[in-house]
Write a structure and sequence with these properties.
Layout lengths: L14 H13 L5 H11 L1 H4 L4 H14 L3 H14 L4 H13 L4 H14 L4 H13 L3 H14 L4 H13 L3 H14 L4 H14 L2 H17 L5 H15 L6 H24 L3 H12 L6
């Protein structure tokens, strides 16, 4: 419910608007916990959604968990359990409510392990185990579980993203790069994956990895050429480094100097086109301290 003197954001919404909003958030995997609870309490959704209320009820349960609303958690679980008494999905939610929320994580993992034995195709159960390990900062254990999970569910993009981020936390950049290679193979037109892979290669900072970083920053710019400052800065920095690398030939140094100059000009132009004169001045000062030496 809105706090006193806080504007009621639900004003003007009808029941169809509410239903569409909740569906949109589920489809986009967005929690919006406070707003989900507001809608549930204000519009009495339980009475008019019919069979469509069950996915909404699970959505409300997750919102209540996020907000530590114990009474709403209990209400949701009671209704779901009554409707689906033998559901493994509801059992998972009950485990979250009874064990995870009380920080009885070892017991929760045991329950999930038992459920996995009966349903090895249930990806969510594996993810709950990984989430518990990450929440408890057991990153090596989470990585191990996630690697095993991805052997079974190789097309899970979120799983590869999570594993890549965990490897970065552990400074295992070569393994993180492998994760983003997998993502690029299945999503070759996603410029963000190319940029992230390039950033990892830039961090590795060998002559070979810098060459790869430059190539993938360039591909990211090709896929998303409109004011892609992240890729432009990446091209500038990698070309700058490569132009002064001790292993670089004279020709490669010149090629990278030209590329760095082009990227710098493109960056300046992008800022000027946005009429950000103060930023341009700051940028010029920054780049002046990073000038390429012939």
């Amino acid at each position: 419910m809105p706090r006193e003197n806080e504007e009621d954001w639900t004003a003007g919404l009808d029941r169809k608007d509410v239903k569409d909003l909740l569906t949109k958030w589920r489809d986009e995997n967005v929690r919006n916990s406070q707003k989900v609870r507001d809608l549930w309490l204000r519009f009495d959704l339980d009475r008019y959604l019919g069979d469509e209320k069950w996915p909404v009820l699970e959505q409300v349960f997750l919102a209540a968990m996020d907000l530590q609303d114990a009474s709403l958690v209990k209400e949701c679980i009671t209704k779901l359990d009554a409707q689906f008494p033998n559901s493994s999905r509801v059992r998972r939610l009950k485990t979250m409510a009874r064990l995870e929320v009380r920080e009885r994580f070892d017991e929760a993992i045991k329950v999930y392990d038992e459920m996995i034995k009966n349903d090895e195709s249930n990806a969510v159960l594996y993810k709950r185990k990984v989430a518990i390990l990450i929440a408890n900062k057991k990153i090596p254990e989470a990585i191990k579980e996630l690697v095993e999970y991805l052997k079974k569910f190789m097309n899970d993009h979120e799983g590869w993203l999570e594993l890549g981020e965990l490897y970065i936390q552990e400074q295992e950049y070569t393994k993180a790069a492998f994760c983003y290679e997998e993502l690029i193979l299945t999503n070759p037109h996603n410029h963000l994956y190319h940029e992230k892979f390039a950033e990892i290669q830039y961090t590795i900072n060998s002559s070979e990895s810098l060459e790869l970083a430059r190539t993938y920053f360039a591909q990211a710019l090709k896929l998303n050429p409109n004011n892609n400052m992240r890729a432009l800065f990446g091209i500038y920095l990698t070309a700058n480094n490569l132009s002064s690398h001790p292993k670089a030939t004279s020709q490669k140094k010149k090629d990278n100097q030209r590329l760095a100059a082009w990227a710098l000009a493109a960056i300046n132009k992008a800022y000027r086109d946005q009429d950000q004169s103060e930023l341009v001045g700051s940028l010029d000062s920054l780049m002046a301290n990073m000038q390429i030496v012939n």
